[in-house]
């Protein structure tokens, strides 16, 4: 019999689930209204005639796969939380971290008496049962301390019970769940008994929680809740807070926390949600910028977790599986230390047909075995894996703890690629075909790696399949990807090179200007021969561009482009010609000239989640007046645009904005004279603001 509670609730929704879903739908509608959405539209049925080129670049190192990478949510309304069958299925999918007690339920849950006033608590779901399941799976726990209706003392006692009394070694603890959904910004689904529901109050109490919990066990890591850039309520400031949620929380609680916790439900149709994985790199970049700007000294120590992901369309069918594998890979290669699907069991929702398969609208990766309220449609038997379960299993076959993600890319928007380098010399390449109708032939090119002529091991999950197919077929350089499929190739090297030097350590950047930057790194360990030199490479998409080489551990790069983002790696080469793995990546951004005959101040205000009011002040630092002007800048992404403007003539072609004076703004006096113009900006993804502006062809100082 279906558990009624499992039909009502999902991760971010909790006791007010339907209200949370309305906000998700509204946000998606607003994004569509901008007209700037980077959507994917399925091609016509049949085989694709154009071969997609995939580039896998072993020189372009990304993050290392952590031992907490693959996560999943468990919930106290799930009576099968502790069953051996459920745990064994999760272990089989490679789950490494499990979150408890379940989304918004965390803010009404009291661990001492295992109650959640206002919600349903299933039998056999207490904390000790959860920890027994964690151990059976071979995972680590992620525990949510009750912020909404709890206290720092209650959380501290939970830490004491878990780690001193029971010696569970629970390391990761988050303070609350989606607490920005407490009504402070107008939508209320998250329980919050505090009279003051501001971001400021949340941040102050996070400090109290962290102090109380770490007084019991100083080894734990405490996390605070943030929101995903370009997702509600990002950019909104309410009440007397000094800024939006993320800025406020980090400014006050940053020195006390060890990680930040983010959720992401991209919304939209299957094609739209699959396209939005392209936002991940910029979203992670903005999160890192926020940490650096607001979280205080040594902000680089603060990790990022994504503990809820799911889609609106195709939750139990192939779109869910494709999104899971693509999003997990993208987030992990950009440095997230864990990514969690929402959730294990959730219950049947709105039933539909997606790409020829029945989709049960269930947020769970395993069937709950229930039926619709009228009994006309029933899910498969309990614990039948849905497509996202197979997507998670594919991740387990693809990226193992200790592997290093390396850059991979394609020239076909409907095909994405990810790759890892393994300690035994193998490469694993994950290929995602997001086209529901067409198979795609792909040609795979490798840089910094020579594949063996041996047949690769191939794992494939196709639309409607109930398992992952394993074979040894084809070659390392070509493949045909079935429609709506996940394919992983495990490729052996042409020869194993012994005695390689170790990879250089984490590079850092200093002295960054508009044109130059100095890159430094820790010395690499020598292998079979002494290290001869270090090579510095820029990641230009999936292609590496060598910036230079040196025998030392510092290199100054010149001829950089102002207002641009650079990601670089360092490799060590020894006297025998053997090359190390790539260092961890370093990302930095150049600025504008320290001095110029012009200055530009670009500010955004009144942000409403997919748009804002922009103001641009143009300052003439020269002695002579300017009589007529043209200002230009280039948006960092394809999903940003000027919707309308005033006090000047505005146009946008591609990513480039061109503004010319009107009669009123034509003259700008010398010696610090200025003019101010404004516009309405729109965005449908992370809003990375420009930092390089030219006035009449001259690069200005950005203020």
What layout of secondary structure does this protein have?
Elements: H1 4-8, H2 17-33, E1 52-64, E2 70-73, H3 84-92, E3 97-100, H4 127-137, E4 140-145, H5 152-165, E5 172-175, H6 199-216, E6 221-225, H7 245-253, E7 259-264, H8 270-275, H9 280-294, E8 303-309, H10 318-333, E9 338-341, E10 352-354, E11 357-359, H11 387-398, E12 404-410, E13 415-421, E14 427-433, E15 440-447, E16 457-461, E17 469-472, E18 478-481, E19 485-491, E20 508-510, E21 517-520, E22 531-540, E23 543-550, E24 554-557, E25 565-574, E26 586-589, E27 598-605, E28 611-620, E29 626-627, E30 630-634, E31 640-646, E32 649-653, E33 656-660, E34 667-668, E35 673-683, E36 694-695, E37 698-699, E38 701-702
Parallel strand pairs: 1-15, 2-3, 2-9, 3-4, 4-5, 5-6, 6-7, 7-8, 8-9, 27-38
Antiparallel strand pairs: 1-12, 10-11, 12-13, 13-14, 14-19, 15-18, 16-17, 16-19, 20-21, 21-24, 22-23, 22-25, 25-26, 27-28, 28-35, 29-34, 30-33, 30-36, 31-35, 32-33, 36-37
Protein name: Alpha-L-arabinofuranosidase
InterPro entries: CBD2 (IPR001919), CBM2/CBM3_carb-bd_dom_sf (IPR008965), CBM2_carb-bd_dom_sf (IPR012291), FN3_dom (IPR003961), FN3_sf (IPR036116), GH (IPR017853), Glyco_hydro_b (IPR013780), Ig-like_fold (IPR013783)
Keywords: Carbohydrate metabolism, Glycosidase, Hydrolase, Polysaccharide degradation
Question: What attributes does this structure have?
Answer:
single chain, 703 residues, alpha+beta, Immunoglobulin-like, TIM Barrel, nine-stranded mixed sheet, eight-stranded parallel beta barrel, 11 helices, 19% helix, globular, disordered N terminus, hydrolase activity, hydrolyzing O-glycosyl compounds, CBM2/CBM3_carb-bd_dom_sf
